[in-house]
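User: Sequence in, structure out. Go.
Assistant: Echoing your sequence, followed by the structure tokens.
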Amino acid sequence: MDWKEDYRKKLVSLEEMALQIRSGDIVGTTMGVSECSPDVYEAILGRAGELRGVKILSAVPVRPGKLHDPKFMANLDGHINYLSAFFSPSGRAQGQPNTADFLIVMSADIGEKFAMRSDVFATMVTPPNQKGFVNMGLTNFYTSDAIRKGRKDGKLRLAIAEVNDQMPAVLGDNWMHVSEFDVFVENSTKIPAFVRKPPGDLEARIAEYTLELIKDGDTFQMGIGGIPEAVVAGLEGKHDLGVLTEMYPSGLQDLVAKGIVTNARKPFHKGKTVATFCMGDQALYDFVSENPLCESYPAFYTNNPSFIAQHPNVVAINMALLVDFSGSIASEGIGYRMISGTGGQLDFMIGSYYSQGGRGITLLSSARQLKDGTLASSIVPELPPFTPVTVPRTFAQYVVTEYGIADLRYKTVRERAEALINIAHPDLRGELRDSLKTKLYMKK
């Protein structure tokens, strides 16, 4: 069948698309800016009275809507429930205990896990090109992986593509043919753009220490957050940096224009920035769109620790919430409250650990202010119960706060605790030292 005829036969309205959801379905969807629009979700939610046991599974939601409103979703409990693999500000309210459930994933295995769970998978794509291929746009991550593995394993029943003529096309392994989808819905919607406020003094101080650890010729990965973006903003004067990352770094277009990022020393994809998704401002979207210098691949490729480790001098830079005395790194939540997810942090920490000359860097503010105005240390003797460990202490290396750098890799537990206390908030160091003596030294 001609692909154009195939496309026309599969093209339906939002309401017709929603009618194909069955009770008991798990509806997986792409993350970030290629996640389905609220229009798709609300068409499905509109059928809540007819459906039971439906779960909508997503990650990093960026378009606020009814699906991410815990009060609204509480009324649909048992009919349609929300399931997340990574919370973001748009869906973080659902990270409270007893609201949405959470699927534990790493970026390297998220495609397989979505494939094993999803009866239906929905994503946003570009219109088909002249050869009948749609582009995954600004987010590949687990989309093609989940659909193709789901098909192969016989789990996936329905693949839905929301066709958005405002979605940029990004080159690389980022294409799927019309024949791989069962349903198309045309829906032109604006792509969310993100402009962060300039880094404050705290972010700038942490970035300044971090920049001491970055050398010419390094290949770096940056996580999401204000502090990593402050590091990117401070790369002036560095040369021949490469990028192998999960998320295209903000300001990439400026780094390339200034010759800071050349990707010239990478052993793979030389001259090209390689990532699996993009979330930034319009200037970044314009830069990555159909740019031969930028390639997007599924996360099982970009985030494979063995592939990362084959690059020398990999610098992995990610944020954390808490670090305990032994170096266990918690970046996803505190106690039973989920704030984000594992993402690619563990993938890149392991990859950088085995990379020749690699460096894994964890960034955190030394303390946070509680509601009553008191300070709580981000460096703690032990993590609160049920707090997920994102990076086990075995892979911890550099920890950076606004008070300095602690290199943990070759230190004992006591030595690690002492090094971490030295970069803790000054007002809290005495209490931490008392705890160190009580918990890790013999009592006399």
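User: And one key feature?
Assistant: Residues 3-186 form a domain with the Glutaconate Coenzyme A-transferase fold (CATH 3.40.1080.10).
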